[in-house]
Amino acid sequence: MERKANIAVIGIHDRGEKNPEKIETNGTCTWDVLDDGTNVIKGDESRDESGEMVVTSFRITPSKVKMVRKGLFASVMVFEKGIDHVSTYNTPYGAMDMKVKTDILDVIEEKNHLHAHVKYVLEMDGQVTSNSDIQIDVELV
Description:
Blueprint: E1 3-14, E2 21-33, E3 39-43, E4 46-47, E5 53-61, E6 64-71, E7 75-79, E8 85-91, E9 94-109, E10 113-124, E11 127-140
Antiparallel strand pairs: 1-2, 1-11, 2-3, 3-5, 4-5, 5-6, 6-7, 8-9, 9-10, 10-11
């Protein structure tokens, strides 16, 4: 059964510049738990940091987080400790191969709250583009 929830996502991306970039997003979503225990979070449509409309959804289990972003810049990222995942990052300027190497994946599931923490290295077209840290918090309203 889908339930309304609030979602907060904080991403810190170190691209080798002086200061890492911090992106914070707060919004509403639906949260459902499938029979196999998978948490399905569907974010409501919102504007990203560039002002474009996006929809971000997550499928979260204790050992895997899948993030799907739909919009002008679209991607699917799968985080699984010890397993590299390759996908495509689609932009208006073309598509790029993207590899995700997950270093840390922690998921805490409670009755009314879900927390996921992921630290990963992102490579695009064979080049490391960032060391990233994402915190996802979902809480029933």
